[in-house]
Amino acid sequence: MYAVRTIICALCGKVITKRMPAGRQYCSVTCSRSSPHLQRRTGKIVICQNCGKAIYKQLSLLRPKHHFCSLKCANQWQGRNKTEHSCKICGKAFCWSPSRSRQNKITYCSLACRDVDPERRDHLRRMNVKQLTMHPNNLERSVYTILDNIGIFYERQYLIGEKFCVDAFISSLGIVIQVDGDYWHGNPARFPILTDRQQKRTAFDRSQDAYMQACGYHVIRLWESDIKRSPGQVTDLLHSVLTQS
């Protein structure tokens, strides 16, 4: 209950008289916050695992096996066993943990350096071509069968200008044939309103076509629905274009 009382501050010794609750011990909030509050301490003093400094930890924070006085000390202790390496691209020194070093080839300091490595890009290109060549889908196999029946020489999964891997390339005629899935490439006959993903893909297809046309190639794109529903028309189209070119 509040009443006019006179107390001696338990921290600074100042005598004050004012209206206050029973049991008040400090003259101000500053003294209250600066006091040890021993009656409230349910934790204990622990030693920082990194620098050896003694620190007080609350009871709720005593579960971890290791304790640290600051985030800096925690990070230093966490990285105590890291090994130093030099980036293949920029030469910058960087550190990796032993577990990460065992699982990965230590080469780059960042993803940016990794992505600009010409050797890695060439390796990924070769792997992509190999994967596409080894596993043609049903649509591509259908078109390859049509081309085989026409009897014209073509190359499967051919790399154009070290940039784009096309489904079929007829070098004698300079013709590129691409087989497009209705959904992924945004066939306007089936999807009048394209999703963001389809819009990005169609924009990429247009830029790809523009590049190949600038290289002097004629691009023929075949839709999934046409190959499945009207294979005869697709055959007639290819036969007409390839035999009259």
Characterise the protein shown here.
This protein is α+β, with helices and mostly antiparallel strands and about 240 residues long. It has 4 domains: about 5-40, no CATH class; about 45-80, no CATH class; about 80-115, no CATH class; about 125-245, 3-Layer(aba) Sandwich (Endonuclease, Chain A). It has helices at about 30-35, 70-80, 100-105, 110-115, 120-135, 140-150, 180-185, 195-215, 225-230, 230-245, and strands spanning about 5-10, 15-20, 45, 55, 85, 95, 155-160, 165-170, 175-180, 220-225. The strands form 4 sheets. A 4-stranded mixed beta sheet has the order 7-8-9-10, with helices on both faces. A two-stranded antiparallel ribbon has the order 1-2. Strand 5 and strand 6 (about 95) form a beta hairpin. The model has no long low-confidence stretch (mean pLDDT about 90).
